[in-house]
Amino acid sequence: MSIFSKINKKGAANIAIVAGLLVTVTVVSTVGADGLKVSTVSGDLENEVYQEVSKAAPSAGASVFTTPTLSAYEETASSDEGLLSAEATASSVTGAFDPAAFGYTNLGICKVSEGNLNIRKTPSTEGSVVGKLRKNNACEVLGEENGFTHIKSGEVEGYVKSEYLYTGEEALNAAKDAVQTVARITASAINVRKEPSVNSEKIGTAAKDSELIYVGEENGFARIDYNGGDAYVSKDFVEIKQVLTHAITITEARYGEGVSDVRADLVNYAMRFLGNPYVWGGTSLTKGIDCSGFTMKVYERYGISLPHYSVAQAQCGTRIKASQAKPGDLFFYGGSRISHVAIYIGNGQVIHASSPRVGIIISSAYMSTPVAVVRLFND
Predict the structure, then answer these.
(1) 183-242, what's its fold?
(2) CA neighbours within 13 Å on the CB side: how many for 51?
């Protein structure tokens, strides 16, 4: 998958890719009132463990994680192959289940009781891991080879151990209980509010195509599960539908669900320049650069133009809470006036061009109290 494909479909930027090159980008950086269309586990099965940090309560398509750096992404062997779910049983949902209504021809359902099931590039335990299936995730069964089932789930295609997958009639029975009701965002971005009112406090934004678990309806708003608690979005800009959830990519497994490949790539790119010199007013990532020059040049690679001035950069994008930050968001620091900017890389850390003495370094995101946090990728 192109590193740009997910952000392109999320509505934060209009990106066209030709032969892997970014050719057009349009970014709109303001969010208006509700409905205004603006763009602005523990174990893993088969069998490895990926250490996850501070997981928030999940939602169908927009869970938020505190994310580890690459160095904290450790794989360790597990002593057993994992736990299976109980056998599929008759569902409380009556009537025939039609997988075609959910886009599946030959349905498979992940039957682990806990943790994640590795999706591998090849039908072997030696194959590289390309994604993860969680309990009750659905997939299209494409074939079987060497005790592995070839599947496609969401954006991930690969092989899983066949013993951890319901197929045939068992899959149909299991799927009845796996169906979730979600509120799918149809506008480019809408406000998420604390109470069902346009005058209520805004606690976040939801991007187009996000699927949030639907809890109910109140006063013209859909009540949703948002980071483990109830929140509200205008029903005018959501579609209530039933879905079967699908696999997460290895990028989401590393950085947290909802973190796009472009964010992961941006962090990796920024890390290339660790240790390079700081020069006030500089614009060279290798010969010398200052804090806003660093953020400007890193984002330039992804087709987003920023001014060479931290105060002005803080006026770009969408203001968010520090607790909502994902890798690639910008942290700003200062007293009565913003004087420094850094790139969030996950796990409570930032990378930044710090000073002539130390150059480009990694620091705590809370080395001082951030005065603003800005999101340029609303994915």
Answers:
(1) SH3 type barrels. (2.30.30)
(2) 11
